Structures
1.
Amino acid sequence: MHSDSGATIPVCQDWTRKIPRQPDGEAFVLHCTGGLRAIEHEKKSWHIEPVFDDKAPSAKGFMSKETLNSFLNQNNYSAIAFQSINWSKGKYHSRWSPIISGQSNHFQSPADLWGNIASNLSKARISDHYEKAASTNLDEIAAVLDSTGEIERFARSISLSLRNMDISIEQIVAFYNDQLIHLMASGHIRGERSSTSSDQTLFAHVNSFFMHFGAARDYLASLIAERMYPIIAKRLNKSPKIDSLGKLVGNLHPSDVNRDNLIRMLHSKTYIAQNPENEEKFMTSGWLANATSLRNTFTHHRPFGDRFVEQSGYAQVIDENSGLYQYHRPLVSDDGEADALSVIAHHYQKTVALFFNAAFESGYDTNLLKLTDNDIISKSNRTSKV
């Protein structure tokens, strides 16, 4: 924007204030349903928050990890994910690690595993190119990196979609925690309904969660279809475009179950089943069918937040004497009314299990990519090839 006179407008010097930067620090957090979270105080020592004490939201400690687990089970809280947070020289870093059912080590998330698969496929694809390349021009490097094979592309898309799901649920649990603290601080803990302008953030992230779930599901279906393409095309005598779970299931035959590990896994876990009306056809079933139905509701029929009861939330008592409450925000579906985070946490846990198992059943390399000196290109900056 320029002044009419053409004169240069200087930066005003009347008032100056340094923009504060977050001091160095770190935190390790366990996020749970209801707006509760546990924070590691020292090794093997945790406190929980918020707890209503002396008419105010408070932090209470300390518990061992074993006691914390028993406490959560006793009060019907569900653990959703660990989050490692770090501030270094003002920069914020976060690592989100969903709880993986049946596993004791949650360090590598399904998003990590599928990212590893894509990176390892990428390294194998481009290694010969860079050994022979005479140029390290950034545009040429970008062109080679982006010239992915279909399996590599789908694996990367699965990883990104799962990471987007992680971000969505991270924001939802943060909203729940904030709202529970605000209701405690204002003394509104008797079921008084409350809504604020920040509800729009919740609506956005709930709808986003289901959108990214659907994307991850369809990218996995596309990856399976790519693996099965010669067989499906030969059987149908045509070249079908399969870019969704529905299209994959519609083109599968019972004989395909034993031809691909991923199809075998989907069938054995009852994610897909033979159609009772036509045993030559498959259909989605069990949890995956339910999750897909909910995804379709919030993607094609109406957004979350559309119903009146979804437009406000309230605090529910769990143990008044102990000061334990949870935030409740209704979500309406064909199954009735339930708490939004509880519903999402259920589908998130199931999705995490699906993609964790699928990564290992795929037969691709899930190990963290290891770079050597030969994988680094030097020009003006050191640029990683993968």
2.
Amino acid sequence: MPSSLAERPVERYVLLKGPALSGVAGRSFTWIPQGAEPGTHTVLLHARHRTPPPDTLVLRIDLPS
């Protein structure tokens, strides 16, 4: 994930909503899709900056069958 958004450095990312076995480590999103249903999965992340407000990012993942 990017180190800055709209010229504002991102201090950290926080997972708001994601599929089971997903998470954030540093600037990387990880997911083990074992057992997940095929289709589109939506992930919501907050990009936290030194000064509010945070940015909300939407990541859509297409998982083939």
3.
Amino acid sequence: MPFTLTPQAFVAKWRKVTLKESAATKEHFLDLCGLVGHPTPAAADAEGTHFTFEYGAAKLGGGQGFADVFKRGFFGWEYKGKHANLDKAYLQLLQYRAALHNPPLLVVSDIETIVIHPNFVNRANTPTTLTLDDLLTPAGLERLRAIFYHPALFETAETPEMVTQRVAAEFARLADVLAADGHEPLAIAHFLIRLLFCLFAEDVGLLPEGLFARLVMRTQSQPAAFAGQLSQLFAAMASGGWFGTEQIPHFDGGLFDNAAVLPLSAAGLDVLARVVGADWSVIDATIFGTLFERGLDPAKRSQLGAHYTSREDILLIVEPVLMAPLRRRWATVQEQAQGLAGQRDQAKGPKRSGLHKKLQDLLVDFASELARVSVLDPAAGSGNFLYLALLSLLDLWKEVYDRMLALGLTAVSPLEGIAPSPGQLYGIEVNEYAHELAQATIWIGYIQWLRANGFGAPPEPILKPIQTVRRMDAILAYDAAGRPVEPAWPPADVIIGNPPFLGGKRLRSELGDVYVNKLFDLYGGRVPREADLVCYWFEKARAQIEEGGQSGRVFWRPRRFEAAPIAKCWSGSKLGRYFLGAV
């Protein structure tokens, strides 16, 4: 197809158009085809199977929807009227994504702006925005043509893991700057977790677009102005309100419970300026907490370049212990649902209605079961095991949700109905840095999942305190009289985690004589004195099961990677089976 419009003619025409969405969008897209020399949908695909307007797509929320434009293997495209909220258009496309065969690009436009959201697997899919003015430049036209001809141009080499490593390293430098200015380590950690959540919230649309980045860049040479403005922003996030001309949602959740800030020097603002351009929406929640904990905790700074537990390693525990029994149950439920659906579809009248209700109840009951499973990590660290447990439950819940839609049943979003949520996660962690990061990790991962699956954001307050993640010692506590006692663990269906692996000969040098003597006395006759520290977690889990607690499945990986022999962990009991993950 020849070029039928010059960039100047296209921009002049569409800059002055004030037509409503329904009257403007098809002509706008046809003009785009002319601008880049691409055949129009009808010319390229007379049958409308691979490049067409109004492509039918099942919605995640139920019913049939239509993507405004679809080109198989290239893009799904959704229009809104001028100055409309394009985040909502993107969420709409996310609902169609599976029905559109997961195209490499998801494109939204309000006529004046085109936003390209890459949809590549395991890539930092940073959006690209093209304005009308951009289309007057060679670079802007190249990006526009790439949508139609070369979508791989928008694929970056950077993975979420790489982004997370890079910004965690910068935050470690920022922690050093604040420490050099004389601030206390815990105050530094709390402040920096607030900053990183602001960066994340901005890039997922929970804060107004570019708000935090503009604040940093405009006050970079004025530390006092930055501190004053940031305090006002924190105050707005604490309860919801106004920051200048922008309305800020209610966040709080304990993270934004006041307006306190630490003053950043010019050196600190220089570091912050380097990270505002990163796409914080793609940070990898699996490793996020661990990397930031190492950067914020002075005692762990030497571990910055050390190996961390990968997603694959964590799933080796989460899958067999938490998910495998649920998947077996889901297979049975699906078989029952298929039989009921067949009976329903052949029935009529009241009998059909009764079978339809029975089918609905069957799948709702299983979805409710997923929302009731309680998961405990008594060595929670910065929350990566709990996060992946929640993610796995949500992914299985999504299978139930999709199955309900396919069977013509009523399904509601996880924000409106019964679905897995952070509230069913239980954690114990003694380290104050890790404890606070665990809550941020879980909420960031949960918000990422909702967004990636087209369900939007949690209702306000966006952050709720996760009271079930406690800061305490998991194996030694004291009663009111100061006597050593075993701390109570919350009852849970499943215990997973990554307890510290510390050889018996190193206990005293690492933990001190007083602590170790009390530990030996408390667990005397149950855990041999030469046993590894990890065995105390195993023993408490074993005792909890034996005493009739809810916990039915236990699986751990010691926090260091040298495999401890089972006989060394515990001999002459059932504990070896728990170590292997058997029930």
